[in-house]
Amino acid sequence: xxxxxxxxxxxALGTTAATLLPxxxxxxxxxxxxxxxxxxxxxxxxxxxxxxxxxxxxGDTCVYFYNPERWQPEGGPYSARAIHRYVEELxxxxxxxxxxxxxxxxxxxxxxxxxxxxxxxxxxxxxxxxGHAICxxxxxxxxxxxxxGTSVTFFNQYLxxxxxxxxxxxETSVACRQRGVAPWVSVRMNDLHGHHNFEGSFFNHPLxxxxxxxxxxxxxxGMSGDFTYREGLNxxxxxxxxxxxxxxxxxxxxxxxxxxxxxxxxxxxxCEPNASEQTVxxxxxxxxxxxxxxxxxxxxxxxxxxxxxxxxxxLATLRTIGIDxxxxxxxxxxxxxxxxxxxxxxxxxxxxxxxxAVGEGPAIYGVIEDGANAIPTLNPxxxxxRDIRLIxxxxxxxxxxxxxxxxxxxxxxxxxxxxCTDQARIPxxxxxxxxxxxxxxxxxxxxxxxxxxxxxxxxxxxxxxPFEAAPxxxxxxxxxxxxxxxxxxxxxxxxxxxxxxxQVVLKKDAPAxxxxxxxxxxxxxxxxxxxxxxxxxxxxxxxxxxEHIGYDYxxxxxxxxxxxxxxxxxxxxxxxxxxxxxxxxxxxxxxxxSAATTAG
Length: 600
Description:
Distance between the termini: 47 Å
CATH architecture of the domain at 4-116 and 166-192 and 208-219 and 233-336: Alpha-Beta Barrel
Radius of gyration: 25 Å
Strand content: 15-25%
Structural class: alpha/beta
CATH topology of the domain at 4-116 and 166-192 and 208-219 and 233-336: TIM Barrel
CATH class of the domain at 4-116 and 166-192 and 208-219 and 233-336: Alpha Beta
Number of strands: 21
Low-confidence stretches: 1-46, 594-600
Helix content: 25-40%
Strand order of the largest sheet: 1-2-3-4-5-6-7-10
Largest sheet: 8 strands, parallel, barrel
């Protein structure tokens, strides 16, 4: 089986019975899957997903509402015009598929069947939001009062649409259809934005408010962080599965979408850890019931209805909480996967290994999150410091991130949290939607300037062990130790006048005169130059934080190969050394670069 088409053909007979005749469990559709009308072959087997859907944009429930001045600059009560302007922006910049998020813990659209985020709210009711202030980390009275005011303003926009008879979720599909963009829907499976106040936050579904519905053993000894962030809904309970199935059924059956994504990064919590084989089988059957639901919808509309998941890349760890991704891909239940990091984008996601695990059936998308890593950077002109770069303002970082995913075999790109840069309203930092175009085309990325980096250990709120791969930085080197870092990169054309710059970021007081660097086995380079600046600006952020400094090593761009590349850093001094990060740039060669490339 050399191609996806070969796999689909040989697997078809063996998977049809398993996927079309699932065992039913509590919360399933009352219509037996065995009587469901046959769906088109493409919808059943996932064939052709990546042929039509390669540049995917995931927008959360607030995507139209964060920046009303941008999407409805004329002001006035919020209207459907903002939704259409947003989708027009995506369409005009090459997005072919828009995944709109329908829910957090509750439904955020005006559901007729489910608890919604606006239930009980009346225009101007500040007290409605008070219980959520602690979830935002706010305790000072002035900060709480400011939050209440901004919440009223924000949620009044949703109320504007409700009072005008506009269902923003349905209007998303209308806007997409008018512009040739495929409308898909994304459902968050265990959102915990209200976890600091389960009983009092308006975010939380009634089931989540009750302790007995939540996971009891989703942490382990020695684990750091806020344990309430691990008390998600327990899918071993039939009432939980029933509630989520009702959420999924509504957006599939009552709305005009062509695809469904289950978002397991909000949060990667399902069943109690070390789930039994019986529990894993029960969850697999539940997912197959959802698959049958989408197939019935496909048969009704005559269009494919694709089904997949956004999830961590550690598939074995997901199985320990009941989600057997490999089996669901191998039997044809899932059409696509979107493996990702949490908020900070992955730079070393092993798409090649994931492909080998799940087979040739599903499309696998590389997910670009908005956060680069938690290495602090600075704008010295204004004194503004930020502990995480928001890369939707950096074409070079986006190009590098996408290239590293595509070169390992990703079928396309999914954008997540792209709009968060705008949401922050930081001078000089904006989400540039023109950067979306052609990001899924590796041939268009070769020869472009690029800025690679690594995901780091980060800080508590942006780290989700054990679901993320252990970060490669920071790295402690005792005297005469060395360490090799691995990063996927794409090879570059040799006729564009490009060079490779490797920047080793150290603490300011580090002994940097004896730090040899080797790339893909070349003879170690010892000549470097100190540099307080980033290899490329990220919006208005141009420099490292004062406690750090970069050392730049210049090498030939011809050393870069498609796929995994290795950077070895040695500590040639007698002192301990901390490698804060390693960053790499593909950029136009400087006239004096040739001398450094041969130094050793």
